[in-house]
Specification:
153 residues; 6 strands; alpha+beta
Length: 153
C-alpha cells in the first residue's frame, strides 16, 4: 500500500514531486502504534525522525530525575507534523518521551534512509533539510516570544 497521499500533507515534504516522495517512501517505513505506546523515551538514542500520518503523539519531558512518573506534556503532534528531529540531526540522546495518545500511523525516516533517498535524487535531501531548518527556526522564535512574555509579567 502506498502512503503517498499522506506524505503529500507533511510540512517537511512540501516542494517535493510525486516521484521524489515515492523515493522517500521507499527509504522509510510506517509503524502502526496503539494508544499508550511509547515511540521513544527521553535519554534513549536513535537516528530516526517520525512523521504523524494519522492519530496524535504527545511529547513529554521528565520533571523529576528521580521518578519516571512525573512527565509534563509540552506538545501534541498531529497528522503532518514531525517529531524526533533533534536526534535525527545530531545523533544525540532524545530530549523527551514520545507517547501515542490516539492510535497513530507514523512514517519513520532514518538518517541512512535519507542518505539513500538523496543518493537517488539529491534535491530530496535539500528540500527536507531546508524545510526542517525553517520549522526549527519557527519553533525557536515561538519559544523566544513565550519566554519574553513570561518575563514581562
Amino acid at each position: 500500500m502506498s502512503f503517498l497521499p499522506y506524505l503529500k500533507r507533511i510540512n517537511l515534504f512540501q516542494g517535493m514531486t510525486d516521484e521524489q516522495l515515492a523515493i522517500l517512501e521507499q527509504s522509510g517505513h510506517t509503524v502502526d502504534f496503539s494508544e499508550g505506546d511509547v515511540v521513544f523515551s527521553e535519554h534513549s538514542t536513535g537516528q530516526e525522525m517520525f512523521f504523524v500520518l494519522e492519530g496524535r503523539v504527545e511529547i513529554l519531558v521528565n520533571m523529576n530525575e528521580e521518578s519516571d512518573e512525573e512527565n509534563a506534556p509540552i506538545h501534541t503532534n498531529r497528522p503532518g507534523e514531525v517529531f524526533g528531529e533533534f536526534s535525527f540531526i545530531d545523533g544525540g540522546e532524545r530530549s523527551a518521551t514520545a507517547q501515542v495518545i490516539e492510535h497513530a500511523l507514523v512514517f519513520v525516516l532514518s538518517r541512512d534512509g535519507l542518505e539513500k533517498a538523496a543518493s537517488v535524487d539529491p534535491y530530496i535531501g535539500y528540500i527536507l533539510m531546508y524545510n526542517l531548518s525553517a520549522t526549527l527556526v519557527q519553533r525557536i522564535r515561538m519559544t523566544t516570544w513565550e519566554l519574553r512574555a513570561s518575563m514581562m509579567y
